Amino acid sequence: MAYQSLTIPANAAVLEIGSGSGAITRYFGECAGSVLAVEGSPRRAAMTRLRTRDLHNVSVLCATFERVRFARRFDIVVCNGVLEYASLFMPGDDPAGRMLEMLSELLNPTGTLLVAIENKFGLRVLQQRPRRAHRRRVRRS
């Protein structure tokens, strides 16, 4: 996991957007002071809760990111595998840009924003260009 190369302060407050099954949540929960994982899917939120059930510094919220009103700022905000889907839940002409702006606003002044995207389509996802059909030749003997 790429996050293992980071130095996570033991007192860091972490916000994870899109916890999925909770693997990254678990890692941050073992390193940081507190973790709030936000997951829009009830099934995945339940998986995250199960995976982190013994970590008392981890809270899991089943909600869509854009509807949550956060009462605090965070030292680290993690957005892993979510930004490429921003157009599905963020309004406007630039959903990915708006989401990055909102995530940045949740950071403490010296905070860190960590963004990773699924790269099976490259920048096309962020630019919201349509997927091209991929063709491959099949060799027949």
Structure description:
The protein has one domain: Vaccinia Virus protein VP39 (Rossmann fold, 3-Layer(aba) Sandwich). The chain is globular and about 40 Å long. The chain contains 4 helices and 5 strands; from the N terminus they run βαβαββαβα. It has helices at residues 23-31, 42-51, 95-105, 124-127; strands at 13-17, 34-39, 58-62, 74-80, 107-116. It has a 5-stranded parallel beta sheet with strand order 3-2-1-4-5. The chain has 141 residues and is an alpha/beta fold. β2 (34-39), α2 (42-51) and β3 (58-62) form a beta-alpha-beta unit.
Q: Return the domain count.
A: 1
Instruction: Give the oligomer, counting copies of the same chain as homo and different chains as hetero.
Output: single chain
For the record, give the distance between the C-alpha atoms at the N and C termini, rounded to a whole number.
42 Å
Order of helices and strands: EHEHEEHEH
